Amino acid sequence: MTTRNEPARTITATAGGPFVCGDELSIRTADYVWSEKGEPLTWQFGSPRQIESGTALCRCGESSDKPFCDGSHAEHEWDATSSPPAGSYAERALPKQGTKLTVTDDPSLCVHAGLCGTERATVWSLMSETNDTDTRATVIRMVEKCPSGRLVNIVDGDVVEPALPAGVGVIPDGPLWLTGNVTVRMDDGTELEVRNRVTLCRCGASASKPLCDGSHVDVDFEAGGLGSAD
User: Fold this and answer.
1) How far is the C-alpha of 227 from the C-alpha of 209, rounded, in Å?
2) Spatial contact of 2 and 55, defined as CB atoms under 8 Å apart
3) Rounded mean pLDDT of the chain?
4) How many Å apart are CA 109 and CA 84, to the nearest integer?
């Protein structure tokens, strides 16, 4: 299913339907690397491939060709209401101050990816130890792996973001992960704040659509990588 004439580097949540991609976007799998204890440690990415302009990606959760749309949204009842968090990230996020490092935190964006900690320590517990260079580097790496951008590093007063391509990551059993400052447009034409890391709901259950709110965990959403594109 495709639509035409979408501007570059955009993804649009259509009314009651799929996400529609603009030009200049790639798509790749974004899978977890697990520890022997079952803790997510980092990301392993598949080879990126270009997305044809107008490609439709499922957001109702019912497509048999996930992450691509197969028209199932028209055959199933689902709530497509858009209700993202109000205001900007800067207005919502709370700072956590460490030594030579501040981490800002917007819990409304959490998707339960779990890369912000281990069974021994979390970003928040380690902030009090960032006078140690190795610990500070560990926190920075953890924050950079947060797919939704709930957590952001500020070093010497400047926001420090990882360099990420303009594209879509497909997290198995989880959201679509937009990277590289892609514009997200809602069905009424409203554009969300452009950010380097954004996660989009593809299970159909989020109360913060088009953003993910972690509901895929609650509904036991099951979906693999790139389906027919693998």
Assistant:
1) 23
2) yes
3) 93
4) 9
